[in-house]
Amino acid sequence: DGTFNGNPVPATDYWFTVTYPETVGTTVINKEFKAHFSLKR
């Protein structure tokens, strides 16, 4: 809804990174996903 803690956030581009573990056999590999989105009002 375009708010954070009840306050409106600016209409702009937002970048984010998701870091997560991926298990391959008995090995854990740290993976990273980066993307962005545009908040339009």
UniProtKB/TrEMBL annotation:
InterPro entries: T9SS_type_B. It comes from the Bacteria. This is T9SS type B sorting domain-containing protein.
